[in-house]
Amino acid sequence: MPQPDRAVVLVVGAESPTGLGVARALRDEGLTLVGLAADVTASPCRSALWHEIVHDGGDDAQARIAAIRATATRYGRPVLVPVRDDVVELVAAHADELRTVVDFVLPPADVVTTLLDKTAFHSWAVDHGFPVPHTEIVADQAALDAALARVPYPAVVKPFERTPEWQAASPRHKAYRLQSAADVDRLGFRLLDAAPRFVVQQWIPGTDADVWFCLVYRDRTGREVASQVGRKLVQWPVGTGSTALAATAADDDLHTLTRDLLDAAGHIGIGSLEVKRSTADGKLYITEPTVGRPNLQSNIATAAGVNLTVLQVRDALGLPLPTVPAPRPAVWIHETTILRALAVAAARRALDVRALVGALRGAKGRMAAFSAPADRTPLTAELRRLGGKAAGAVQRKARRGQAAPMTASAPVKS
């Protein structure tokens, strides 16, 4: 049950490192932290920071709303913090109903749809003059073939939404880089069997270190309260994956682009913009916005002293927002992917060693995906999970080898 005189924060998506990151950002704020999780056994749910972990009701929207309402009834009007796009969409679509039991700061439903729906966002961005690469959304084989024939190469293909079928067919990759249309046939699975819609997008030349982002918090009036610019130094998988190592940075052009885009959209609450700086022309091209929620590396801002999550919770509670200190240099690390990412990037000669060494030497703040001082259980649980997964793969391979047919031997003479 809730602890006396402590505000309650309900994090929906607690099974993810992003959800754990929210708990870590709030650990010193005297709050009761409750997680709603799709998988209550996931490694991030093992953190001692959680007062309770509750199943989120599954994929059914009404079941998830019922889980939120039931938890809110038990804990007495918590602050709701979504950390997944599907939860942001759900809360925005049912905002009036949910506001009767929880507090939150989230953009209106039309803003969420414009910025999250890749088709709507691309058209909106072009109409408003924001820099986006050539992008097409396809939902059938004919449209996919036509898009692959039109898009400039190299190109990237990625699912509109990462479905369970996509995760099964492509557990490591959230996107694939294509040198030609023929590369689609080499993926090992049929794209439209893994997801109903896909994004086919022009590849922006550059390495992982050319991917930048700007994290922001905007209050209920749309005023920017705080921001933090950063850059990825390496991703996993290299070139098309998620952040393995990021560092704080400064870029006035990116900050201005982010502010202008979110102003034009009418965004409030927490969010961010990710871009890639083309090595061909030096320009910034928008790869995606994050709407109404933190993302994987958001705690780099916390490590820098710019705690966007605290601002979000205080704003939802109607409390005064604190003055944000000047940021300090910081890094964010994904412990279970960083070594593989560095090795592959170095082998491909796609690693900015100078930026990497400078970021690590200069960092005054550090945070990570799973580990933290006095809270290492999520990391040990994740390492055990990965170790078990690797051992299972070895065993399956060995069984396949044992089951392989043997060649006939010569008959034995009596």
UniProtKB/TrEMBL annotation:
Region described as Disordered: spans on this chain: 390-414
Name of this protein: ATP-grasp domain-containing protein
GO molecular function: ATP binding; metal ion binding
Superkingdom per UniProt: Bacteria
Keyword vocabulary terms for this entry: ATP-binding, Nucleotide-binding
UniProt KW Zinc keyword: no
Lineage: Bacteria, Bacillati, Actinomycetota, Actinomycetes, Pseudonocardiales
Keyword Acetylation: no
InterPro entries membership: ATP-grasp, NAD(P)-bd_dom_sf
UniProt domain ATP-grasp: residue ranges: 122-317
